[in-house]
Prior knowledge:
The chain has 252 residues and is an alpha/beta fold.
Amino acid sequence: MDRNRxxxxxxxxxxxxxxxxxxxxxxxxxxxxxxxxxxxxxxxxMALDDxxxxxxxxxxxxxxxxxxRGAALDRLLDxxxxxxxxxxVRWLAGDGWTNAVEASFAVRGERGAIDVFARHPxxxxxxxxxxxxxxxxxxxxxGLDRKARLAPIIARERSWPIGPVSRILVxxxxxxxxxxxxxxxxxFRTALPASTSDCRAxxxxxxxxxIGGIVFLRPPDxxxxxxxxxxxRPIDGAPAVSSTSVARPRSR
Length: 252
């Protein structure tokens, strides 16, 4: 993140609107001194929420990216996403749902895929968006709404009975995800008011009234599994170590 460039951007956008630092601070809910520190590139200890709020006030958007070992980071994220999808499918299958993973669609020029598209013997349809972590809140909600709107057409193409369509956002259980959803609580509560327990109870016995909610899921630790696999992989000529002996908890 180029801190000096961000500072220059904030200053340029502020001046373009003809605001003083104090005026921008008042509109964004931060102090004038904080605006001054940003504009001079001193944002090291600033909360990202504050910076994001200032940029939104200026009709701009903060986008952060992380780089790590080329494409290895994408594979790492995909692996966690796949683990959450798998846990979601197991949960729904246990409640009698039929699931289609990565259900692709092309409807009137709109293309994409539903992470998990499910139907219940009662006729209920369920569109699930899986997020290993929460990124752009608006795009997440807009994408889920779009897929739910197209769900009856997608179901018809699969020869599924068309019933009421529900929407659930399944999120990887982390402190960061919960914190981000809490920071945007008003948006999420309006679009997806049902809690994890509400969604799980509904999935066990779907009603004719569609539901919209958020489910936090903690999938198996895929990274721990890889570490264990690496430890038990036999060396040429050496006896294999049993996974049981490696996974045995230490005595206290």
